[in-house]
Amino acid sequence: MNSVNLMGRLVRDPEPYMTENGIYRVKFRIAVNRTFAKEGQQNADFINCVAWRKTGEIIAKYFKKGDMIAIIGELHSNSWTDDEGASHFSTDVLIKRLFFTGSKSETENPEETEFSGWDTEDFTEDDLPF
């Protein structure tokens, strides 16, 4: 089973990209606080995420640096060799579902935040509450 559930803040604005085949993709990174940390310290993991097609469009349009997002996805490992012969590796979360959780000012205590989520496969802009 390959399932990843995360809730964190975007480290910077999402980076949209259109492939040569005309498929929309967005990449972004989120900071996810660790459950256990030394007293007075807050540790976080920084996780790379990728969303394709309509899911990517939604993220690029409605999320920005500092916004809280909850995601469900799959872990994907990639490797490739660039034009200069150097090997590269990456591990990303491929987003399957996303949840709007509010802006930074609205979610100072994310554990207490209630949110609604949408399965983005059948998502249209008419479904948005705003």
Largest sheet: 5 strands, mixed, barrel
The main sheet orders its strands as 1-3-4-6-5
| Unreliable residue stretches | 110-118
Number of strands: 7
- Estimate the strand proportion: over 45%
Number of helices: 1
N→C terminal distance: 35 Å
Rg over CA atoms, rounded to whole Å, is 16 Å
User: What is the average per-residue confidence, as pLDDT, rounded to a whole number?
Assistant: 80
In one word, what is the shape?
globular
List SSEs in N-to-C order. Answer: EEEEHEEE
Helix content: under 10%
Structural class: mainly beta
Ordered list of secondary-structure elements with their pairings:
Blueprint: E1 4-10, E2 15-18, E3 24-33, E4 44-52, H1 53-62, E5 68-81, E6 87-100, E7 116-119
Parallel strand pairs: 4-6
Antiparallel strand pairs: 1-3, 1-5, 2-3, 3-4, 5-6, 6-7
